[in-house]
Automatic annotation (TrEMBL):
Presence of keyword Cytoplasm: yes
Keywords attached to this entry: Cytoplasm, Nucleus, tRNA processing
Family membership noted in the UniProt record: Belongs to the ELP5 family.
Source organism: Lachancea mirantina
Assigned GO CC terms: cytosol; elongator holoenzyme complex; nucleus
Subcellular locations according to the entry: Cytoplasm; Nucleus
Gene Ontology MF, one: tRNA binding
Protein name: Elongator complex protein 5
GO biological process, one term: tRNA wobble uridine modification
PANTHER family according to UniProt: ELONGATOR COMPLEX PROTEIN 5 (PTHR15641:SF1)
InterPro entries reported in the protein's UniProt record: Elp5, P-loop_NTPase
Primary location group: cytoplasm
Keyword Transferase set for record: no
Biological pathway: tRNA modification; 5-methoxycarbonylmethyl-2-thiouridine-tRNA biosynthesis
């Protein structure tokens, strides 16, 4: 649910211009709508950045790309080592963007290791995952999370690309036609819907919807049905009681600013550890070993 104390358009703009800290951007697409325009939009908003394109299924080098690499899924460690050589040094102020056109080809057991090996502070990884492509699971990894679940967990920002509802009024009929490989007209339109999910440092996720025009690079925030219902519920107590049950804008803003323990896993250097930051207002006795916050 989107928060009224945040400006969704400003947040999207900060993400695209790499001003909002995010190490791994996951782009989800379907047969009806491709996510190729998202990587191009990152390059358009960062003209001075080095763009490395890792191709799993793309044949020709896109025009906005600085370096074009063909991926070898049989040796992911060698691919990561080769990719790192194209990245600017850490002392270099230039930003770098790594575009992965299809993460479906990366084996499940090497997925997290491959992404964490190339993600760093000056580098943003923008990877695309095709939802409609079936995954071949190894029997040895039966109890291991699927590739999509794993990617959604480690991603700090998710772009879910979907076709606009007015283009295809009957969603069930569209899904049925795509399942039979009967491709309707009007798919992969330059104007489509983006469901943006961004995780803050506290681990709290913010979700917004946008109408995006890839030809013009223009995006417009659209309110979801859940947000409209929430706005109606906030006013349902008006005139029913002698006291106020609604929350003020100041109270909502204070609620949004609550910081939970920072998820160290977002820095890609530990496995999901939660770090507690000790403050001076905490009641702590040094002589009591059971109250050691560290």
């Amino acid at each position: 649910m989107a928060s009224s104390s945040h400006n969704p358009s400003i947040l999207l703009r900060r993400i695209l211009t790499l001003k909002e800290p995010t190490a791994f951007v996951l782009c989800l697409d379907r047969l009806e709508q491709s996510a190729n325009a998202i990587g191009q939009e990152f390059a358009r908003n960062n003209s001075d950045a080095v763009v490395i394109y890792v191709s799993f299924e793309t044949l020709n080098k896109p025009a906005y790309v600085t370096h074009f690499l063909e991926a070898n899924v049989h040796n992911m460690s060698k691919l990561a080592s080769n990719l790192i050589t194209y990245l600017p040094a850490q002392r270099d102020d230039r930003k770098s963007i790594v575009v992965l056109d299809a993460l479906n080809y990366v084996p499940n057991e090497h997925l997290s290791t491959f992404i964490t090996s190339i993600a760093s502070v000056p580098t943003v990884v923008v990877g695309t995952f095709h939802r409609d492509m079936p995954e071949l699971r190894s029997p040895a990894l039966e109890n291991y999370p699927s590739s999509l679940t794993l990617l959604q967990f480690i991603a700090t920002t998710i772009f879910d690309c979907r076709s606009l509802p007015q283009q295809h009024a009957n969603a069930e009929e569209l899904e049925s036609e795509l399942g039979c490989f009967s491709i309707p007209k009007g798919l992969n339109d330059p104007v489509f819907k983006i469901v943006l999910t961004h995780r803050r440092k506290s681990g709290r996720a913010l979700t917004y919807q946008f109408r995006y025009n890839s030809d013009k690079g223009d995006y417009q925030y659209t309110q979801s049905r859940e947000e409209e219902e929430t706005a109606e519920q906030e006013n349902m107590f008006e005139g029913l009681t002698t006291f106020n049950l609604n929350t003020s804008s100041r109270q909502k803003q204070a609620k949004e600013q609550i910081e939970l323990p920072f998820l160290e896993a977002q820095r890609f250097n530990t496995g999901g550890a939660i770090v507690y930051e000790f403050e001076k207002d905490d009641d702590y006795e040094e002589e009591d070993p059971y109250e050691d916050p560290f």
